[in-house]
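Researcher: Next entry in the queue.
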Amino acid sequence: MKKLLPIIMLLVGVGAGVGAGIALRPAPEPPVMDAEMAEGAEHSDEHAMKKEPKKEDKAEGVPTGREYVELVDQFIIPVVNDSSVTSLILITLTLEVDAGTTESVFQAEPRIRGALLQAMFDHANIGGFNGAFTNSSKLEPLRQTFVDVAQSVYGDEISDVLIVQITRQDVS
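Model: Structure for this entry, 172 residues:
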């Protein structure tokens, strides 16, 4: 019985956590309707083509006509000093692409990932992940390299590469 008690407590804790997560989940946002839809106007392909896209979303300052493609897995880059791995860098990236190109970017993801990973290895080999690696003077050249590499592999449909997460784990 003493061996079952920790397992039972674990299951109760997990169940309580899941129940609390479900109970405290925010309510879904109602669908947004623009003025034309509210009036019951019909949308045809011809009407949609005539409509000029907005250059910039005023609320967020982000150009419209863009989509974001989150690269599925993190990148793991070893940092090698004196012939041994001293730390690991974990990076999560998202690509900003032209609207409508998301599917083709996903199909080209292995090529894009390979080129980005090589750029990260090169950055690690010149000491880019040593010291204060999150300093903007070190991250900005890396971001620009990411954009250049991604555009050289895929094309100008990729307008930016966002570093969503970056972490260094020192190996002892």
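Model: DSSP finds six helices and four strands in the chain.
Researcher: Noted, moving on.
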